[in-house]
Amino acid sequence: MGSESDSINRHHIAIALGIGLGIVVVIIICLVLAVLLNRRYSSRPFVSKDKEEKLRKLDAVSPVRTLEEFWSNLKGPITSSEGTDGQFNCAVCLDPVLPSQNIRELKCPHIFHKDCLEKWYLKNHYNCPLCHKPYYVQETQPGTDFVWMV
Ligand SMILES: [Zn+2]
Ligand SMILES: [Zn+2]
Fold first, then answer.
1. Which N-terminal residues, if any, form the signal peptide (predicted)?
2. CATH 3.40.1350 matches 49-122
3. From ligand 1's centre to the CA of 32, what distance in Å?
4. How far is the CA of 50 from the centre of ligand 2 (A)?
5. Which of 40, 69, 98, 128 is 20 to 30 Å from 78 by CA-CA measure?
């Protein structure tokens, strides 16, 4: 009698273990799927409407140009001596700015990568990171000579 109920108990334990393992496997599969889906979403270039709108406004005051275009408007073509002597370094990421790279034209002659300036701007900084000259005045002050104070 005793051995019979023992084997029934063992049988129940085996079923319980099987169900438990099954649940664990399902949870793991769900987690893996969730991670994969998240990765797919985050790999998509996600720009919120707010950011797009802000960048559109920035476009109006600070057009995107290559460094070469900007420089030839300002001082004529980049000569080989200027390219080597006058180092164009982006003060945000400290990397050199190459003549073919995109920058944003500011009210001051400072040069930053387009992406670096956009990151700076999207943190609600409306002044040049170097000289603090405002390049963008918020539209909430229309008609006034509002200047951003440092
Ligand atoms: Zn940079
Ligand atoms: Zn500046």
1. none
2. no
3. 36
4. 26
5. 128
